[in-house]
Design brief:
The chain is an alpha/beta fold. Helices cover 31% and strands 16% of the residues. It is built from 13 helices and 15 strands. The strands form two sheets. It has a nine-stranded mixed sheet with strand order 7-12-11-10-9-8-13-14-15. Helix 6 packs parallel to helix 7. The radius of gyration is 21 Å and the shape is globular.
Length: 385
């Protein structure tokens, strides 16, 4: 058997190495020039130029969730035919078999805004998003990710979040049960098979109906990939069991600056360890509530040093449908306060909104450059959705 070359010397590359084994892996391949010529997890990191002369000797494993499509196209253009994906479409957000996952082991925390702005990771992400938008603009397909925010409140105080409980400017709103069911029924009529979640810029467990809502959605959307993010503070074992009955994945962001488990997460972890079939659905992610993350178009409270990304593109309006409690459709997941409304599901159907004039306009504008849409020019969130 050929040895593997893992394409992507990052968090997913680390997980791929654990899965494939060090003895069966020869190199890491990465487009980041700062990584090339160094080592990652004790193995050399090489460039595409170094790899191509020996491409027939190895099997390439693409280890990325967001940029896998771009990486595949790069390999095909270079004549590399022997490759596979470590991740498949709609698998876990954190592809790891670890119940408790520390993302900082593979990607260290950024210390300053300047360090974030100048990071090579951002440069590579911008390139990947630019190319993906070109592909999606021609395709104009259906969204593959829907977030339904049933209550627009959070009990967390994360300094990077524009709607944390200390600064949230939103008027409190709770989704009507009839509206939630209307949305789910429309998705059922479309035989929807993408990602589905009852979470957006909020803590979903603040809505006491959230478990019932997820059970209803599971019955009507058997093909959907159902997941949920929570900070875990309101989680009990009974709620945990009820949610994991229907979810494909539960992600618990354990926010604690020293990366220690909070009490509900300790209880969940102990229970999950005793029930391996449930543990496969759960990832407890160690997160710091005070760190430098994206600017979200200048709305992140702990960001001051704005860069102009006016010439860059964005893929999110091609992939996401973000539903607020009142049925309004926001621009994207980073539009936490709903500054831009592209439709209203209390008056319109999902398909009428998605293919409507407002969405078409924003897609055209962001395809031509972020400078064409409000504060998007200052948004450094380069996500593939």
């Amino acid at each position: 058997m050929k040895k593997n070359v893992i394409f992507g010397a990052g968090s997913y590359g680390l997980q791929a190495l654990k899965k494939l084994g060090r003895e069966q892996t020869a190199y890491f391949l990465d487009n980041d020039k700062e990584k090339q010529g160094t080592s990652f997890q004790g193995l050399p990191v090489i460039s595409a130029e170094e790899f191509l002369p020996m491409k027939e000797q190895y099997h390439v494993v693409i280890a990325s969730r967001l940029y896998a499509g771009n990486m595949e196209r790069q390999l095909l253009e270079a004549g590399v035919a022997d490759y596979s994906f470590f991740l498949k479409e709609f698998l876990r957000f954190y592809e790891t078999e670890e119940l408790i996952y520390n993302p900082y082991e593979a990607v260290p925390e950024v210390g300053t805004e300047a360090e974030w702005n100048k990071s090579r990771r951002q440069e590579l992400a911008r390139k990947a998003v630019y190319e993906e938008t070109e592909f999606l603009y021609e395709k104009q397909g259906l969204f593959n990710h829907i977030e339904i925010e049933t209550i627009n409140r959070c009990n967390g105080s994360c300094s990077f979040c524009p709607v944390n409980c200390k600064v949230d400017p939103r008027e409190k709103k709770v989704m009507e049960k009839d509206l939630f069911e209307k949305i789910v029924e429309e998705l059922a009529g479309m035989d929807y098979a993408g990602r589905f979640t009852t979470f957006s810029n909020n803590e979903p467990l603040l809505d006491e109906r959230i478990i019932d809502f997820n059970h209803y959605a599971r019955k009507r959307l058997p093909k959907a990939r159902m997941h949920l993010f929570t900070n875990g503070t309101l989680l009990t074992l009974d709620k945990f069991k009820a949610l994991t009955e229907v979810l494909d994945e539960l992600i618990i962001d354990n926010y604690q600056q020293e990366l220690k488990l909070i009490k509900p997460c300790r209880e969940v972890a102990e229970y999950a360890k005793q029930h391996p079939e449930i543990a496969k659905k759960v990832t407890i992610v160690l997160r710091k509530p005070h760190e430098i993350l994206t600017s979200r178009g200048g709305t992140a409270p702990n960001r001051r040093e704005m860069e102009d990304y006016g010439k860059e593109r964005c893929v999110l309006p091609f992939k996401q449908l973000i539903v607020r409690p009142d049925g309004k459709i926001s621009l994207c997941c980073n539009d936490a306060v709903g500054a831009y409304t592209l439709g209203d599901l209390t008056k319109e159907s999902i398909l009428d909104v998605w293919y409507g004039e407002a969405f078409q306009k924003v897609r055209r504008c962001l395809y031509e450059g972020r400078e064409n849409w409000g504060k998007c020019r200052y948004c450094d969130a380069f996500s593939m959705g």
